[in-house]
């Protein structure tokens, strides 16, 4: 089976894309490697995102906020898929990736923008983590090698609108 490199992009690379990176790396096995980055990285990972990942029982020591520019260097891994997880409804600027990877927009509301009680903030991060987990599981269930490029793109777009 082919190995696929997957990038999750958002603006700050402090919550959604970090959680997606951890989810895919822990669910996918050896055939996938996930990365995450941001167009304007926050420079730190939100503790609420770390908490969600730790609650799943996964390591967090290698997770860090980083710029997508790290992945445009000549020695960067070749990317097969790029998923933007920024939320257009929040008027965030999603980076556009040059090159040939298959891309899709999987908009997720930004839990880092939620204000309120600690319980409300925790709930927002939990919802984002759950939705990312569902979409990544749907992605992993695809028979990628057997789909032509149009069918693959349609499936990825469908997953990006999935709430289940």
Major beta sheet, specifics? 4 strands, parallel
Structural domain tally: 1
Q: Could you name the CATH homologous superfamily?
A: Response regulator
Number of strands: 4
Q: Please give the order of strands in the largest beta sheet.
A: 2-1-3-4
Secondary-structure element pattern, one letter each = EHEHEEHH
The top-level CATH class is Alpha Beta
How far from one another are the termini? 27 Å
CATH arch. level architecture? 3-Layer(aba) Sandwich
Q: Quote the beta fraction.
A: 5-15%
Shape: globular
Give the low-pLDDT segments: none
Q: How does the SSE layout of this entry go?
A:
Elements: E1 4-10, H1 16-27, E2 32-38, H2 47-55, E3 81-84, E4 102-105, H3 118-141, H4 149-161
């Amino acid at each position: 089976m082919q190995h696929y490199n997957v990038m999750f992009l958002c603006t700050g690379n402090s919550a959604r894309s970090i959680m997606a990176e951890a989810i895919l790396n822990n669910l996918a096995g050896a055939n996938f490697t996930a990365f995450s980055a941001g167009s304007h990285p926050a420079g730190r990972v939100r503790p609420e995102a770390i908490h969600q990942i730790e609650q799943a029982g996964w390591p967090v020591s290698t997770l860090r906020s980083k710029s997508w520019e790290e992945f445009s260097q000549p020695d960067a891994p070749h990317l097969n898929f790029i998923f933007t997880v920024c939320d257009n409804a929040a008027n965030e600027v999603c980076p556009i990736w040059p090159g040939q990877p298959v891309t899709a927009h999987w908009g997720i509301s930004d839990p880092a923008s939620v204000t309120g009680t600690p319980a409300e903030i925790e709930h927002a991060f939990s919802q984002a983590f759950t939705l990312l987990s569902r979409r990544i599981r749907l992605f992993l269930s695809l028979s990628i090698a057997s789909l032509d490029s149009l069918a693959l793109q349609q499936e990825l777009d469908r997953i990006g609108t999935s709430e289940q």
